[in-house]
Each structure stands twice: as structure tokens, then as C-alpha cells.
Amino acid sequence: MARYQIILAYDGTGFSGSQRQATTRRTVQAELEKALRALGWSGLTVFLAGRTDTGVHASGQVAAFDFEWQHSLEDLNNALNANLPADMAVREVVLAADNFHPRFDATSRRYRYRLFCQSVRDPLRERYAWRVWPPVSDLHPLAKIWPGRHDFAAFGTPPRRGGSSLRSVFSAEWQLQADEWSFEIQADAFLYRMVRRLVFVQVAVGQGRLPAQALAQALQRQPGVHSLPPGLAPPNGLTLVEVRFDNGRRLRDHNPG
Length: 257
Hints:
Radius of gyration: 19 Å
CATH topology of the largest domain: Alpha-Beta Plaits
CATH architecture of the largest domain: 2-Layer Sandwich
Order of helices and strands: EHEEHEEEEEEHHEE
CATH class of the largest domain: Alpha Beta
Number of strands: 11
Strand content: 25-35%
């Protein structure tokens, strides 16, 4: 019996999130476990590095499971992909330490959010990006607000009731190419729906509906005359692209462009 560590990519459109549920709703974890059982796996559960919400994508999700497999890593990779649905794929398989856990051993995760500014809907792009109109002004300076250790209570909720809302953001950056913006953020961990909330309020600033100082005030939990508008960026623009671990091994999107 050995523990295996995989990079998993999926189009989140057809999933009710990554985590297996008590209902019959389709999830990433349940589909991965079904593919493993087709290969003779008799385990109870696979472990994921992080939870993604309904409609959120991944190119660098990490999963681990124990399996009695008598063939090569490449054979396992190919066998899993032969049994997974078309909107999921295993991108890499490696052997892991017996006590490896992708959630608890992860030291950081990186997400990318994509949006574009266009007045007319674009069905081919909107599956993986948020169409925003009116257009936004320069978003680059807003990324400088987030790095550091802060209380992000105004931008998400802890995954467990009563949990801490303190998070350390290591980097944040907006990039612009043609009419498409992408926001990349790396942190030790994220609150529930934190990235989508951060994108939503930054777009509000970019559209002139909110002053930039309101973001810094909310982050520092200072009273201000401007309250943050409610709302979240839609899930289809968000992708989990990278998970890092203490041992220096980086499991990530093979094509971060």
C-alpha cells in the first residue's frame, strides 16, 4: 500500500463543488473516487488540498489517496484518465510520504480570477471569465493593498464556525491583456469565497462605485463613511492554479499563461 499525490484539473461548470456531499449532486471528489474504484481501489476517501465552490475551476488541485497499485506511475495516470469524465483530468502522479495530507501540509495556494470588459455578451469567453460592464479603470494599484497578514473578516468567512479570519497574503497582482484582466493572489490559506469577494469590491472601485480607501479601511477594520457593497464575483472566473508544500515541491498548473 502506498500513498499517491496527484495534480487534478477540472472544468467546474458541471460540478456542485469539489467536496463529496451527502446528496446525489455531482462533485469532483465523488468522480475521482468513482474512477479509483473502477481500478480496484477500496479506500474510504481521497484527500483534497482545498475546497472549490460550485462552478469554480482548477488546473492545480492536489489530491492524495492510498492504493495498492502494481504498475507504474504513468500507468496509474493513464488509467485514471481513462475512467474520469471529460471535464476532469489527472495531470501528474507522484509517490508521497505515508503521512502526507494535501490540505494540512500545504503552505500556500494560488488562485487566478479572469474578467473582461465588453458590453455585449460573449458565450465563448464567459464560461471561464466574468464579463464586466461598464469597463473598469486601472486595477493595478489595488493589488498592493492585500499582501501581509491581515484580518480578512470583511472579505470572507472561516471554513469552520468560530475559526480565525487572519490570513497571510504573500503576493497579489493584476495583469491586463487586451480587454481581459486577471487577478492572481497567493496566500497561506483563504476564507470561504474570499477571492471572489476581493475581486468584486476591486471591480466596484474600478467602476467608480467605491473609493479605493474603503478597501484599506475594511481590511484594517477601521470605521469609514463608505461601506463595502454586498456581492461576489461569479464563480466561473475563478481557478485554483497552484498548491505549495513545505518540502519545496510545487504542484501547479503546467501552463500558467
